[in-house]
């Protein structure tokens, strides 16, 4: 004896689609939550135990920039100075700059990276300290931004 299958009602079809959607949504939200948990676990270890991952020594560089002098009257041409330093391989955004007597200084920052240069704007002579800590430092520098809600 065969039993006839009852046709699905509109409410039953809608309920079935809602269950499918909720399962899919649950799957992806759980995956995102788990990846966030792993990110904080790994960066928590790297922040609390930096000695496990080694520190790279800062590189000290010196030389003369070809575009000197960097003065426009009495003012320093910061844009041209920054771009000439970038041509030497510096990266990141200019975080700070200033003047100290005969020399000027400019700092570049990026996640896991810092470069500080002192330049004589008349001669173009420079001294730089470049610190690049690699991927672990990039993750550590991104850590606080994951905690701040965007507005």
SSE order in H/E notation?
A: HEEEHEEEEH
Supply the helix-strand structural class.
alpha+beta
What is the count of DSSP helices, taking H or I runs of 4+ residues?
Answer: 3
Give the strand line-up of the largest sheet: 1-7-6-5-4
Overall geometric form = elongated
Tell me the count of domains: 2
Unreliable stretches covering 5 or more consecutive residues: none
Number of strands: 7
Overall mean pLDDT:
85
Rg, Cα atoms, Å = 28 Å
From the N-terminal CA to the C-terminal CA, the straight-line distance is: 65 Å
Beta-strand content estimate: 25-35%
Largest sheet: 5 strands, antiparallel
Classify the helix fraction into a percent range: 40-55%
Pfam families: PepSY_TM_like_2 (PF16357)
Protein name: PepSY domain-containing protein
Keywords: Membrane, Transmembrane, Transmembrane helix
Topology summary:
Blueprint: H1 10-48, E1 59-64, E2 71-72, E3 75-76, H2 78-86, E4 93-100, E5 103-110, E6 113-119, E7 125-132, H3 135-147
Antiparallel strand pairs: 1-7, 2-3, 4-5, 5-6, 6-7
InterPro entries: PepSY_TM-like_2
Protein name: PepSY domain-containing protein
Keywords: Membrane, Transmembrane, Transmembrane helix
Key attributes of the depicted protein:
transmembrane helix; five-stranded antiparallel β-sheet; membrane; alpha+beta; two-stranded antiparallel ribbon; PepSY domain-containing protein; single chain; elongated; PepSY_TM-like_2; transmembrane
Q: Could you explain the architecture of this structure?
A:
- This protein has helices spanning 10-48, 78-86, 135-147; strands spanning 59-64, 71-72, 75-76, 93-100, 103-110, 113-119, 125-132.
- With 151 residues, the protein is an alpha+beta fold.
- The protein has 2 domains: 11-51; 56-132, no CATH class.
- A hairpin with a 5-residue loop joins strand 6 (113-119) and strand 7 (125-132).
- Helix 1 packs across helix 3.
